[in-house]
Amino acid sequence: MTNILITAAGSNGDIAPYTGVGARLRAAGHEVALATHDSYAPLVRAAGLEFRRLPADPRTRRADTADAADAADQAPPPGPGGKRDLLRQATAFIKELGGGIADAARDDTGLLLLSATTAPLGHHLAEARGIPFLDLPLVPAAPTGDFAPVVSGGRSLGRWGNRAAGRLSLRIIDRLYADAAREMRARLGLPPATPRTVRRRAEAAGRPVLYGFSEVLVPRPTDWRTGLDVVGNWWPWHAPDAQLPPVVEDFLAAGPPPVFIGFGSMAGGEGERLSTLAAAALRRAKVRGILQSGWAGLTTRHTSADADILTIGEVPHALLFPRMSAVVHHCGAGTAAAGVRAGVPTIPVPVAADQPFWAARLASLGVATAPIPFKDLSADHAVARLAHALTQATAAPARRDHALSAARRLAAEDGAGEVLKAVERLAA
């Protein structure tokens, strides 16, 4: 038995997968704590894990901090105006996070499992306390010639250009973490070392990294070093006896399978506009719909109380998506994988960060329509374009066949089981 501390920071999609990993480790006899933001304490405790607090909660700070957390995780290249502001916000987010991560470990912590956002800070903690660690990122981050960094939107720059852009992305991350690393090392009594130095030490040592996505969507790059392994998705925990709310079951029973529309932690404050647009597109495509409110605040309050549209709050995608005829979402890594797992077609509406990358992957796999960039939903023809995509997704048997085939391949993977094997190797 090992006392394990998982650290994860950001929005729901950055946290929820680690509840599934933690529950699997706990079932195998390990003591597991998950350090994250206060907003996710109920999620952590429901999975049977000990909750430990991290500061800088994006839900209490809303969209700006959520975007900063994405910047910390993905490191978009700096640009004029808004991107410079975003990087400043990300630096402030990281500095606040650093102190919380240092406080999260206990004297009996035997292993650190680190998300992409927390890993550059957790490495200093591991060095100071002599604690073994394992990095568990949700998106591909190591440079490769096979594709450009995920924030490039999926457009290849050629093998040399892809690798160069990947190295640049890592250097930007190093800069984002520089101030926090300096403060953290001083607090922990460590000699000065830059994030780049610490990162290169880990690379030179061949430290194992387990990536929590599926090769169904992104095959392991051919030029990655030994020790960088793609193990499959980690699915958010939900109770084995969990069921959809009765109002959802009643809606599903009242007609043909509907279309899911939700944007997760994206599009804060745009609920009225997006709800009106979604309702108009659903009516034009002659399909029923379920709107998940999310941070955008989608609601039927703006849609003339249409009987063919239902608004819901948080519901496990694993229970809801298989009952849909198609899913419309922002294409965060976890939501994109959940749509594939359910075997239903996707209409990708990527907003930022890694979302265009996953949208392009879904389309290339044949399980999704052509992506509709979120900014295009403000254009005059947005209703017609979304309605056309809804018709394509729900009326094309070939796309559903591709989705079902991909779902069968995903079902053969056990990402959390691979983490458990790695943990037991380290414990031994």
Topology:
Layout: E1 3-7, H1 12-27, E2 31-36, H2 41-46, E3 50-53, H3 58-61, H4 63-74, H5 82-104, E4 111-114, H6 119-129, E5 133-135, H7 158-188, H8 195-204, E6 209-211, E7 228-230, H9 246-253, E8 259-261, H10 271-285, E9 289-292, E10 309-312, H11 317-320, E11 326-329, H12 333-342, E12 346-348, H13 355-365, H14 382-395, H15 397-411, H16 415-427
Parallel strand pairs: 1-2, 1-4, 2-3, 4-5, 6-7, 8-9, 8-11, 9-10, 11-12
Helix pairs in contact: 1-16, 4-5, 5-7, 6-7, 10-14, 12-15
Tell me the name of the CATH homologous superfamily of the largest domain: Glycogen Phosphorylase B
Might you state the CATH topology name of the largest domain?
Rossmann fold
The radius of gyration is 21 Å
> Portion of residues in helices?
40-55%
Which structural class do you get from the secondary structure elements?
alpha/beta
What is the number of independent domains? 2
- Indicate the overall shape: globular
